[in-house]
Design brief:
The complex is a heterodimer of chains A (289) and B (366). Chain A is mainly alpha-helical. Chain A has twelve helices and two strands; from the N terminus they run αββααααααααααα. Classes of the chains: A mainly alpha (289), B alpha+beta (366).
Chain lengths: 289, 366
């Protein structure tokens, strides 16, 4: 190895702090978890080993692979629901709101909840959807329901609603940025060439905003996939997600090796999604130059 | 013949206070190459955008081929525009860019293909059909924009500063090419530019705009030789604008006086003796006269202050005895004929061709 030259030393010193941080608090923990995932559980503790039993158990036992499927399903629903709401909103902000002040205000209205505690935001939905909640009171008051129902809370529906609310800013931000970057004269050119506003949306605006859509979908999917507080607050037995199972393996179930194996699988899924999204982004960028 | 475009008392006011276009009325004949010329902010682009349908007039009407299109959206007008920065779709190939406007016309696939091939051949880009816009040079993108607009065979082609992003050589070549394309296609062209040379070279008719209004409309030579206002005289080409007083008026000749300098000009307008007027003299219409020549009509003496070399000609920045500054352009071959080009500090005598002097009253000042 080449000895560092004297003028390189300040740069190395500056870089070493974040590098040490990443190694100590990211790389080493990952290695530990990875190692644990091959260990054997031996009640009441676990012993070092190298075997794939933990992984095999996850793929053999329905309660584990089903929770993975359910987590994936909820994450996909959250991404789709976020997209369906965020895209029209961002489109409206960029193309329809003329006043820059109003645009900034509406944009901030979406971003502002990010400064409110996550726990509080998730809890809000408990008070809205619960059997004593705002939604029930309203439906009873209007006479649509005879008495309060508990179908709104503690299921996958309440999970998707809550998580969409929590993560939708991460969908709005990249889509807004992508839409804002589209030159307005492309929209005019499409109109000039006889294409209706809907045709323009489909043939010009949507393809040019895809990078933002992909980024937003990646954010919401990955954030939802790793979430464990919303299931805890509004999920109920039907809404348990993989992060909750991992938590319980490290806690009550006292099966760290199995928890580690689940964590590693979760990490692989999230990294694969990020990699796919990155490739799609790059393929798109080549075309746009 | 019925005009293809009728702009009828059109006004456009932004935010209720900025008057961009102020009561403009203009007819464009079918097949004409008309240019809206003026500095930025004169309303020319707003007027063009109202023809395309991107802006709506606050007052007045726009008719296309006899039909009122004032409030018709862009996608329902039979006009196409070449945008200033081309506005090519970055995610589509060149061929798909050109085909973009054809897909709505309910044509067969093979017919679309043929039209795209023809349009690209017309602008000399047949080999670029499968490339992406970012792979093309500025001049090539500009041709694609042109092909994309003409492939739909619109009644009117709108060009918004089409050549402003090109470098000087390419711009000159494209001027000629556009002009050829115009006569080949027989379409009506409406172009917007702030470049007077471009307007003079390309147009059948120029509309000079100033503060949202039409200052003067006419053929290039009309505007150049017979400007109606000092604004036009100075915006289209350059003019020396000399304040004078009318000394005498006869049936054919008006004689004006500037601080003792007598200028005789043709009696093209009615003025009264003693009236204050402005004489406009083109710098290149001045002849350098040797000092020993007999005193001629329209002779003036001035001191050379600066020489500006323009290649084929030289511009002399002079000062009249009255203190007015005065420009004079000399073709270098002509200047060489009388010996040498005058040096700064030297006093020279200039003769102005009477026919080239325009007279403006105070009302013509802009």
């Amino acid at each position: 190895m080449k000895r560092p030259r004297r003028e390189d030393i300040p740069g190395l010193v500056v870089l070493s702090a974040p590098l040490l941080w990443a190694v100590a608090f990211m790389f080493i923990p990952y290695v530990i978890i990875f190692t644990y995932s091959f260990w054997l559980k031996k009640y009441p503790t676990f012993v070092p080993a190298f075997q794939f039993g933990n992984y095999a158990q996850i793929f053999a036992d329905p309660q584990y692979y089903q929770v993975l499927f359910r987590t994936g399903k909820i994450a996909i629903f959250v991404s789709i629901l976020s997209l369906l709401m965020a895209y029209p909103f961002a489109y409206f902000l960029v193309f329809k709101v003329r006043s820059t002040r109003l645009r900034a205000l509406l944009y901030m209205a979406v971003i502002a909840p990010l400064w409110v505690s996550y726990l509080l935001r998730a809890y809000t939905w408990k008070t809205i959807l619960g059997s004593e909640g705002v939604l029930n009171s309203f439906l009873v008051w209007t006479g649509i329901l005879g008495q309060p129902t508990d179908v709104f809370l503690y299921n996958q529906f309440s999970m998707v609603v809550t998580l969409t609310y929590i993560f939708i800013p991460f969908m709005v931000m990249p889509i807004y940025t992508a839409l804002e970057k589209i030159p307005k004269n492309l929209v005019e050119a499409a109109g000039d060439l006889g294409v209706t506003p809907w045709g323009t949306l489909w043939k010009v605006i949507w393809p040019l905003s895809l990078p933002g859509v992909i980024a937003g979908a990646t954010f919401t999917f990955c954030l939802t996939f790793g979430d464990f507080i919303a299931p805890f607050l509004v999920g109920g037995p039907d809404g348990v997600m993989v992060a909750n199972v991992i938590t319980s393996q490290y806690g009550a179930a006292l099966n760290w090796p199995l928890g580690s194996a689940l964590a590693i699988i979760m990490l692989i899924i999230v990294l694969a999604v990020i990699e796919l999204s990155d490739r799609a982004q790059r393929a798109g960028r080549i075309g746009l130059g | 013949m019925k005009p293809i475009i009728e702009i009828d008392h059109v006004s456009r006011i932004f935010n209720g206070k900025i008057v961009a276009v102020d009561d403009v009325t203009l007819d464009v004949a079918e097949g004409e190459f008309i240019t809206l010329l003026g500095p930025s902010g004169c309303g020319k682009t707003t007027l063009l955008r109202m023809l395309a349908g991107f802006e709506q007039p606050d007052k007045g009407a726009v008719r296309l081929d006899g039909h009122d299109v004032t409030h018709l959206p862009p996608y329902r007008r039979d006009v196409n525009m070449v945008f200033q920065d081309y506005a090519l779709f970055p995610h589509l190939t060149i061929a798909k860019n050109v085909a973009f406007g054809l897909e709505r016309l309910r044509l067969g696939r093979s017919e679309i293909g043929r039209k795209v091939t023809d349009a690209l051949a017309l602008v000399g880009l047949s080999d670029k059909a499968d490339q992406m816009p970012h792979q093309l040079s500025g001049g090539q993108r500009q041709r694609v924009a042109l092909a994309r607009a003409i492939v739909r065979q619109p009644r009117v082609l709108l060009l918004d500063e089409p050549l402003s992003a090109l470098d000087a050589n390419l711009r000159e070549a494209m001027q000629v090419e556009l002009k050829h394309l115009h006569s080949k296609l027989g379409l009506t062209f409406v172009m917007v530019t702030h470049d007077q040379t471009e307007a003079l070279v390309m147009s059948d008719r120029i509309v000079v705009m100033h503060r949202g209004r039409i200052a003067q409309a006419g053929t290039p030579s009309d505007l150049y030789d017979r400007p109606e206002t000092t604004y036009v005289a100075d915006f289209v080409g350059t003019s020396n604008l000399i304040p004078c007083e009318v000394a005498s008026v006869t049936r054919d000749v008006i004689e004006v006086d500037h601080n003792g300098i007598r200028l005789r000009c043709p009696a093209r307008r009615s003025v009264a003796t003693g009236q204050k007027v402005i004489a406009g003299i083109r710098p290149e219409k001045l002849r350098l006269v040797a000092a020993n020549d007999a005193a001629d009509a329209n002779m003036l003496t001035c001191d050379v202050e600066e020489r500006l070399f323009h290649g084929n000609s030289i511009r002399l920045r002079c000062r009249l005895p009255s203190g007015e500054s005065f420009l004079c352009d000399q073709q270098l071959s002509a200047a060489a004929a009388i010996g040498t080009v005058p040096e700064p500090g030297q006093s020279i005598r200039l003769a102005a061709d009477p026919d080239s002097i325009s007279l403006f009253t105070e009302d013509d000042r802009a």
